[in-house]
């Protein structure tokens, strides 16, 4: 057998089938690039754009026709715009990789002049003796926003933890200063921390956006366990987080005092807890709330100011922007709270703003 | 001493610690506007300012007024100095929870500065 065999019909048709397959393969690859969610831009080794897929058109606001043949640095804000040709030249000369094959977060420049953060990965490939780079890009504005929000929340959490520790320091310090003995101190401190925790529970249920007065009252009464000894009545009133916490603690102190010395310390006593909204002359609304102990033992004004009295007449009044009167008529303790409703109604703008 | 602190229990704590140190308290102011009002009108020789006053408010305006009046002040914060506006970071910081010894040192420092 000698000579070169002529291509047979079968061989010819096989080559044609190969070419046909290759064309079909190109079409499939084009479809993949054209339908990709990520922006894909191909440049030559001098930075001239060779391909610009539809996702890139959407991302940057240029059409492929506008971009092909232009320097890719058009898509970069300064200083990258000016430096990019230098990066490419250095890579051609030294092979030093800053981004190729690695990927990083950079800024993009849209047709309308706005900039945005994007995640860029670059692959290098060759076609015969020419070198190309494929950049795949994704807008990470949303991710950046989420990261920023997370950073804010972690900071805020840290701030709140420190404040809460300072609050515990305050409650513990005052309890110890006023306690009759260590057993009394342990008992008071424990119930106060539990009361503080219940107040936080109510606020957490509503994402620290405030709380309903009735919910605060119900939680404090439920913690005492004898619901039938209370008559409770009042309209819906929204309290800001800090006012809610202060009121919750003040009610806890009234409750503890009543259980030790007042209307909840004997068999027949009960507590009337009522509140109403009162319109004032200047079109403002005020909250009037009364805690009244009935049928309890005879009470008298305590000889020294403890934590509860200080919290109720000082701190609570300040927090509510109003007046709080605490009286000890022989019939039982009466506490009257008069507060600005505007003040009690402020919501927690920080968390809202951040979310 | 002017005290600015929006957290009720922390304000009580600061009052107690200052009274242990023999200081008389002006305030405590619980909001930025109340703090500014006291800073402009009341008389006191030192001030202790909580940085973050809730609802995004701070005590920085109060600090500016005090600086103009020549009244020394320190910040109280759970954020560290990152929470303080850069031009006010030369003021000492008392961190929360409050170490009474640190509070005493800071008051001594600003009182004699």
UniProtKB/TrEMBL annotation, chain A:
Any one Gene Ontology molecular-function term assigned to this protein's record: protein histidine kinase activity
Domain PAC: 102-152
Classification of source organism: Bacteria, Pseudomonadati, Pseudomonadota, Alphaproteobacteria, Caulobacterales
Listed EC numbers: 2.7.13.3
PANTHER family referenced in this protein's UniProt entry, alphabetically: ETHYLENE RESPONSE SENSOR PROTEIN, TWO-COMPONENT SYSTEM SENSOR PROTEIN
Ranges of Basic and acidic residues composition bias in the record: 7-19
Region (Disordered): 1-24
Record bears the keyword Chloroplast: no
Protein name per UniProt: Sensor protein FixL
InterPro entries reported for this sequence: HATPase_C_sf, PAS, PAS-assoc_C, PAS-like_dom_sf, PAS_fold, Sig_transdc_His_kinase_HWE
Matches recorded under SMART domains: HWE_HK (SM00911), PAS (SM00091)
Residues covered by the PAS domain: 25-78
GO biological process terms, semicolon-separated: regulation of DNA-templated transcription
Cross-referenced SUPFAM superfamilies: PYP-like sensor domain (PAS domain)
From TrEMBL, chain B:
Name listed for the protein in its UniProt record: Response regulatory domain-containing protein
Domain Response regulatory: 1-111
Lineage, highest ranks first: Bacteria, Pseudomonadati, Pseudomonadota, Alphaproteobacteria, Caulobacterales
Biological process (GO), any one: phosphorelay signal transduction system
Keywords: Phosphoprotein
Residues bearing PTM 4-aspartylphosphate: 50
The organism of origin for this protein: Caulobacter vibrioides OR37
């Amino acid at each position: 057998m000698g000579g070169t065999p002529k291509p047979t019909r079968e061989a010819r048709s096989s080559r044609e089938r190969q070419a046909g397959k290759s064309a079909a393969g190109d079409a499939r690859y084009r479809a993949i690039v054209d339908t990709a969610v990520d922006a894909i831009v191909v440049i030559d080794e001098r930075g001239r754009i060779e391909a610009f897929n539809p996702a890139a058109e959407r991302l940057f606001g240029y059409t492929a026709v506008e971009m092909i043949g232009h320097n890719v640095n058009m898509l970069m804000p300064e200083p990258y715009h000016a430096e990019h040709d230098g990066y490419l030249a250095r890579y051609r000369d030294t092979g030093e990789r800053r981004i190729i094959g690695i990927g990083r977060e950079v800024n993009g420049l849209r047709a309308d002049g706005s900039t945005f953060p994007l995640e860029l990965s670059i692959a290098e490939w060759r076609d015969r003796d020419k070198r190309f780079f494929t950049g795949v890009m994704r807008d990470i504005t949303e991710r950046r926003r989420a990261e920023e929000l997370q950073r804010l929340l972690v900071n805020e959490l840290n701030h709140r933890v420190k404040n809460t520790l300072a609050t515990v320091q305050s409650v513990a310090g005052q309890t110890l200063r006023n306690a009759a003995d260590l057993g009394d101190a342990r008992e008071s401190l424990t119930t106060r921390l539990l009361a503080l925790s219940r107040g936080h529970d109510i606020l957490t249920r509503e994402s620290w956006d405030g709380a309903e007065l009735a919910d605060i009252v119900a939680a404090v009464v439920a913690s005492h366990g004898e619901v039938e000894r209370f008559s409770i009545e009042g309209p819906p009133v929204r309290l800001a987080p800090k006012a809610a916490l202060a009121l919750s603690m003040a009610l806890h102190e009234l409750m503890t005092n009543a259980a030790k010395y007042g209307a909840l310390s004997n068999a027949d006593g009960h507590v009337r807890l009522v509140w109403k909204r009162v319109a004032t002359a200047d079109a403002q609304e005020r909250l009037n709330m009364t805690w009244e102990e009935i049928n309890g033992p005879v009470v008298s004004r305590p000889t020294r100011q403890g934590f509860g009295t200080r919290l109720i007449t000082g701190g609570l009044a300040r927090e509510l922007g109003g007046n709080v009167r605490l009286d000890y008529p022989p019939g039982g303790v009466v506490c009257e709270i008069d507060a600005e409703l505007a003040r009690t109604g402020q919501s927690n703008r920080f968390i809202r703003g951040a979310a | 001493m002017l005290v600015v602190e929006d957290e009720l229990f922390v304000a009580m704590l600061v009052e107690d610690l200052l009274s242990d140190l023999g200081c008389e308290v002006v305030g405590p102011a619980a909001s930025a506007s109340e703090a500014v009002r006291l800073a402009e009108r009341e008389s006191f020789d030192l001030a202790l300012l909580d940085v973050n006053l809730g609802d995004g408010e701070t005590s920085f305006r109060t600090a500016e007024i005090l600086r103009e009046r020549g009244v020394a002040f320190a910040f109280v914060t759970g954020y560290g100095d990152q929470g303080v506006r850069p031009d006010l970071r030369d003021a000492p910081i008392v961190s929360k929870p409050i170490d009474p010894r640190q509070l005493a040192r800071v008051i001594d420092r600003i009182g004699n500065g």
